[in-house]
Amino acid sequence: MTAPPCRPSSVIFFILAFSPCAFAVGEYEAARRDMIEAVNSMVADTRSYTGLASLDDKVMQAMAAVPRHEFVPAPLRKFAYLNDPLPIGERQTISQPYIVALMTHLAAPDKAAVVLEVGTGSGYQAAVLSRLVHHVYTIEIIEALGKRAKNTLARLGYDNVTVIIGDGYNGWQEHAPYDAIIVTAAPEQAPQPLIEQLKTGARMVIPVGAQYQYQSLQVLEKQKSGKIEIKDVLPVGFVPLTRGR
Ligand code: SAH
């Protein structure tokens, strides 16, 4: 038997299938599926803390859709789909995928929600949220990170995310009140301005505790009476919420 003649279409197929770019895309997709499995298995392992057997399907679909490798520095791309935090420069980290999924689930925003994130970092958490809600406002205190996240989000077409550089301790009064607030750096106590910018019935998900000491991931829910109900969900380790840069 002789090999069939090599027609132009099969040449193009060969180039596409085996070029480094196409290979990488397929690799990332497989890695992303593994990441989703790792997140699900950690959800099961931490059930005794969180009381959650699984996370919202829509949250997991958003996790499965966002290209995390685009949010990490190029040399670390091969690690982008490990269920681990990774350095993003400026001594900051992109959160562990499990934590991003858990915080998004706990905030429970709906499609019409306007959400505030404090601590943009790489922009990854904002990208996951943006697939589930109407608009995400996100604040980053380190200018270089905020600018990079803004570019990444714009390049990938996440056009319902607005990034601002500033101290998120004070929230962003202009767009308040929010349907949900997610804070991805740890203060010693939930900032009062953020509590004030939360809608009645809405939730803030926030790690609370002193730097390098015990921190608790908390859900604060604003009751109709104005009272704040606090639930401790999980012991965590976040970078500190810094002030006044
Ligand atoms: N959500 C990010 C993870 C961010 S790590 C992601 O998905 O990649 C926490 C971030 O909070 C860091 O980038 C840090 O610079 C930022 N941060 C710390 N204190 C802050 C403050 N007061 N206001 C806004 N951002 C702050």
How does this model look, in words?
There is one protein chain. This protein is an alpha/beta fold and 245 residues long. The protein has a single domain, classed as Rossmann fold, CATH 3.40.50.150. The chain is built from 8 helices and 9 strands. The strands form 2 sheets. Strands 5-4-3-6-7-8-9 form a 7-stranded mixed sheet. Strands 1-2 form a two-stranded antiparallel sheet. Strand 7 (198-208) and strand 8 (215-222) form a beta hairpin. Helix 2 packs across helix 5 (97-107). Residues 1-23 have low confidence and may be disordered. S-adenosyl-L-homocysteine is lined by residues 92-95, 118-119, 121-122, 124-125, 139-142, 145, 167-169, 184-185, 239, 241-243.
Structural class: alpha/beta
Q: Under CATH, the topology is which?
A: Rossmann fold
Count every beta strand, where a strand is a DSSP E run of 2 or more residues: 9
Q: Enumerate how many helices there are, as a single number.
A: 8
CATH class: Alpha Beta
Average pLDDT level: 91
Q: Which blocks of ≥5 consecutive residues have pLDDT under 50?
A: 1-23
Instruction: Tell me the radius of gyration.
Output: 20 Å
Q: How can the largest sheet be summarized?
A: 7 strands, mixed
CATH homologous superfamily identity: Vaccinia Virus protein VP39
Percent in strands: 15-25%
Q: Which geometry do the CA atoms define?
A: globular
Number of domains: 1
The strands making up the biggest β-sheet line up spatially as 5-4-3-6-7-8-9
The topology string of helices and strands comes to: HHHHEEHEHEHEEHEEE
CATH arch. level architecture: 3-Layer(aba) Sandwich
Helical proportion? 25-40%
